[in-house]
Every structure is written in structure tokens, then in C-alpha cells.
């Protein structure tokens, strides 16, 4: 009962309730007007039809179109009211200008990478084209002189992570979707407080939606009292604003400009299995040391500057200062709904399209459109060994329902799907041919591809790729492989439920 009362009085429920009230007021206002006059009713039906035509003719993903056109035509008053509030993905020109200003403030800071690009072109033309695409869309650089290390569990990551935080001398940047109090965060916070007291600059940025039921109101002020700078991304307010859909899903830690971490791990106890939620929580992290860390420092400062509405920062004190031996080629990159590109999604597709021998993918959610399905099928039909790892124990039943709805079409095409039997796999990576891969925060779902701010690291000939592959081999041994017979044996009612839930996949 106490938990239920706490939920009802929590900011997430209260804010969502007021948003719902506003939607209902709009809906019933339009509905009342429609009953007041036949002409008004016909005008509103015509408006729904015109909006449906407009949606059908725009350049958005076909799945988004279907998800909006159906309610627009079957529930015209509610459908177009909801679309006018939440369906438009464009942001205000003022906000877009502020984001572009923050993103362009670091132009010319990084050293030219033309020589590195020539090296890659001489080694592999398809990898060169992938690098060109990421550079052009994410406005980043290719780096050498960077060491990579992959951690296959949260437990392995956490021990190294704490030690690197303790080694900080100048600054620490943390940017995470979820921070939750408990053993993991308490240990990290203790280190951050001691470092801040010692004069180290400590900045923490977290997403408001990701932490809304985890950190109490005013937690940012508590951190500031310790000398920690805090920025909350996109505060969840009771307003009908499409921007509230855009969340900061990135996971970035930068230490002194020379060491950085990213990957699937948030800062909460389930990620290191200090508590059990959905069986064993399987996650991964990537550590970078060297030149490429500068790109993650800049990436962090871009979003910090945009969110905090600060003037142009001085980037130079936050760039890499230590030389490390070369370990392949590395491109840290960011992606987001205001960039005008789909760098995360299309980098995945580009990697799949150019694979020659194998593609291994791990994702907690497999909610994909026809473009991604086609790329996977073409790769498989071209003789590439395509394997996808998903959870066996889900964290969200409705998302897992949609994930499983995609199994049959993929398995029939010859793609091998493995469910991680011990629990929930939250890792997000894709590797191919022992040479290329991406480890980062982007799930194979619509929210990651279209609505979230994400980040990843593209690697070519890096040591971490060998470690990712070795992890995959071990994961396969712990999985249930989905067979065509298993797909056929799904009861009709369950298949219908999967098909119905799939209609809402663009919102997942």
C-alpha cells in the first residue's frame, strides 16, 4: 500500500496525470463542438482526412505513418488532437538554433584526420565509406593512438571504473540516462564528492525521465552542495510538448580527457547484479584511452551547453593530453533527433550491408522496420552468418511481445535468433568479420533510432572487437535458439496479440 501511495503521489504519475487532463480537455472540447453543429463535425472529419493524407505524403518512416493514420481515420477527434501535440517530430526554430549553436561551437578544435582517412581508404574501401558517412553526419573525427577495452559484465566494468575515477586529477564528466541510489551509485558518489573537495571539476548530467522515480525532487541541489555541477536534461513538465519525447539515453564518462567509458551500463544496482530484477543482468561497457576521448569530451559539452543554456565553452582544457599506442581506428559519435540524420540506425545498416562472413548483434529490444529487416535478409541470403541476441526474461512485457513478433519473418529468412536464457541482456553492439563493429547505447528500436540522444563508438581493427566476439561465443552457449518450429507453434491468440502490439512499435 505504501508503494502504491508513493507511486500515486510521485512526480511521474502527477505530471502524466496533468498531461492526460490537458489532452482530455482538448478532446472533449473538439468533440462538443462537433456535436454542436453538423458543419463543424464535417469540418473536423475532413481535417482528420487531410492530416492523414499529409502524413501519408511526408518523408517519415512508413511505420510511423501507419501508427498515426489508423487512429486518425478511426478515432478522428482523438487521433488528430494527439497528433498535433505529439506526432510532429519537428522542434521549434529557437530550440534548433540553440542546439546547432552548441554543436558548432567546437568546429576546428580537433586535429585534422585526412592522413588517417587515407590510411583507411588504402586498407578497406567499404570501411572508408562508413567512416566518411559517420564523419559527415555526426560531425566527428577518426582517431588512432587510442586503446580500447571491452567489459562483458557490469561487475568487471565497475572495478576498473572506480579505480579510474579515483585516478582523476583535473575533471570528471558523467552523462547517464539512469542514476539510482544504491550500492553502485553510493560508491561512485563517494568518489565524486572526495574528488570535488580535492579541487577536481565534477559535472553530472542525467535525464529527468530516466531518473524521475529513482531520485527525489531536489537531488540536483543536494549534489551541488558537495561542489558537483549538475545538469538535468529535458525536465518532465505537465505541458503538451513534442520535445518531452526526446530523452538523453547516452552513457558517457570522461576522466581528465584521457580515459572514457560508454556502452549499455547505467549507474544502478541491477547493472552490476547487486540486486536481481530480471534474472542475471547482462550488460557491457567499452573503455577508451587516448586521442578519441577528446570526441566524447566535446560530445558531452555540446549537450551540456545546450541543456544549461551556457555560452560557448572552452574545449581545450578537456582534450586528450596523453599519448597511447595505436589500437586500430576509432570514431566516437553522437546521434539525436535534432541532428537531421539517423546516424545510429544507418551506421548499423551500412555495417550489415558490407559484411562478408558474419554479423553478430546484441540488443535488449528488436523493434525494427522494413529497411532493417531487408538489410538483415539480404545479408543472410548473400551467405553472411547473421545472428541476433535478445533477452529471454524481459524488462517490459509489451516491448518483448513486439520483439518476438519479428522472430518468424527473420528466422524463415535464415537469420539465427538467440534468447539469453539466464536473464535480461541489455548490451548493445554489432560486430562483423573480426574487423568492424559498434559498441554504444543505441537499441534496435524506434525510440533509439528516432527519438533519443544516443552515442556509440565505431571501431576498425581494434582489440575490443576480438573481446566482443569472444563474448558472443560464450553468450550463444547460454542461449535458446529460436527455430522455425517454435515460431509456428505460437498460439493464434498470441500471434494476434503480437500483431496488434506491433501497430504501436513506432512508440517503443
Topology:
Elements (H helix, E strand, L loop, with lengths): L1 H8 L1 H26 L1 H20 L4 H13 L1 H12 L5 H12 L9 H10 L1 H14 L7 E6 L2 H13 L4 E6 L6 H15 L3 E7 H4 L7 H7 L3 E5 L13 E2 L3 E4 L3 E5 L16 E3 L2 E6 L2 H16 L20 E7 L7 H11 L4 E5 L7 H12 L3 E7 L5 H9 L1 H6 L3 E5 L2 E3 L3 E4 L3 E5 L5 H6 E9 L2 H15 L1 E4 L1 H5 L3 H11 L6
Parallel strand pairs: 2-3, 3-4, 5-17, 8-14, 11-12, 12-13
Antiparallel strand pairs: 1-9, 2-6, 6-7, 7-9, 10-17, 11-15, 13-18, 15-16, 16-17
Detail the poorly predicted runs. Answer: none
Helix residue percentage: 40-55%
The total number of structural domains is 3
Mean residue pLDDT: 88
Q: What would the keywords be for this entry?
A:
508 residues; Endonuclease, Chain A; 3 domains; 21 helices; 18 strands; 18% strand
Structure notes:
The structure is a single chain. With 508 residues, this protein is of the alpha/beta class. It folds into 3 domains: 2-87, no CATH class; 103-328, Endonuclease, Chain A (2-Layer Sandwich), CATH 3.30.870.10; 343-507, Endonuclease, Chain A (2-Layer Sandwich), CATH 3.30.870.10. The chain contains 21 helices and 18 strands. The protein has helices at residues 2-9, 11-36, 38-57, 62-74, 76-87, 93-104, 114-123, 125-138, 154-166, 183-197, 208-211, 219-225, 293-308, 343-353, 370-381, 397-405, 407-412, 446-451, 463-477, 484-488, 492-502; strands spanning 146-151, 171-176, 201-207, 229-233, 247-248, 252-255, 259-263, 280-282, 285-290, 329-335, 358-362, 385-391, 416-420, 423-425, 429-432, 436-440, 452-460, 479-482. The strands form 3 sheets. Strands 5, 10, 11, 12, 13, 15, 16, 17 and 18 form a 9-stranded mixed sheet that branches. A 7-stranded mixed sheet has the order 1-9-7-6-2-3-4, sandwiched between helices. A two-stranded parallel ribbon has the order 8-14. Helix 2 crosses helix 3 (38-57), helix 4 (62-74) packs antiparallel against helix 5 (76-87) and helix 7 runs antiparallel to helix 8. The radius of gyration is 23 Å and the shape is globular. The mean pLDDT is 88.
